[in-house]
Design goal:
- This protein has one domain (5-191).
- The protein is built from 6 helices and 2 strands.
- It has helices at 5-27, 39-63, 67-85, 90-113, 128-150, 167-191; strands at residues 155-158, 161-164.
- A two-stranded antiparallel ribbon has the order 1-2.
- A hairpin with a 2-residue loop joins strand 1 and strand 2.
């Protein structure tokens, strides 16, 4: 990643903690993403797995840039985009599409930034139009996720603090905060290109 080393370390800490939290939710049965059992539970577990991989991968990419990450995330993006195009509930397909775009963005960043490493360069890496489109997407996603965090079901916003009534609402709020952190991390990585 281009820029000061402290930014890389802070980004790695943010995304690694989000990835580890998502990984810990996978271990808990029944409360993944704050949803009870049933079809929503499978979608929540799939989402937790994808977000854990993305968060831990973003942390690793921020500290150790390599084209190897690009090929791994390229394969993940292809898998997610193919499954998003397949049959299933619309919400599940949209969620897979979002993760597919995220994996494709990570592959793009890894392939564009890896040869230069973490050194300062005057020329931007990658294609400016594609980088700009991804910045718009993840900037919009971050704003949307942040606004949804403030309107968590069962929660009341008072003086900037979200107070939630039940454990399910708290799980949804923490899940949204995790997604917000991941969106901010993706936006920051794209901004440094």
């Amino acid at each position: 990643m281009h820029g000061p080393a402290v930014v890389s370390w802070l980004l790695a800490a943010l995304t690694a903690s989000s990835g580890l939290y998502c990984l810990s939710r996978l271990r808990r049965a029944g409360d993944a993403c704050g949803t009870p059992g049933g079809a929503g539970r499978w979608t929540a577990r799939e989402s937790d797995a994808a977000e854990a991989v993305m968060g831990l991968g973003m942390a690793a990419m921020a500290l150790w840039p390599s084209t190897g990450w690009g090929w791994l995330y390229g394969l993940l993006a292809a898998l997610l985009l193919l499954t998003a195009a397949g049959p299933g509930a619309a919400a599940r397909r949209v969620h897979r599409l979002h993760h597919g775009i995220g994996a494709a963005a990570m592959a793009y960043m890894a392939l564009a930034m890896a040869p230069s490493g973490m050194h300062h360069h005057s020329a931007p890496a990658g294609l400016p139009l594609l980088t700009g489109a991804l910045l718009l997407y993840f900037g919009g996603y971050t704003l949307w996720t942040g606004s949804r965090l403030l309107t968590t079901t069962g929660g009341v916003v008072q003086a900037g603090v979200v107070q939630v009534g039940g454990s399910q609402a708290a799980g949804v709020a923490v899940s949204r905060a995790c997604r917000l952190a991941m969106g901010v991390g993706m936006f920051a990585m794209l901004l440094t290109m």
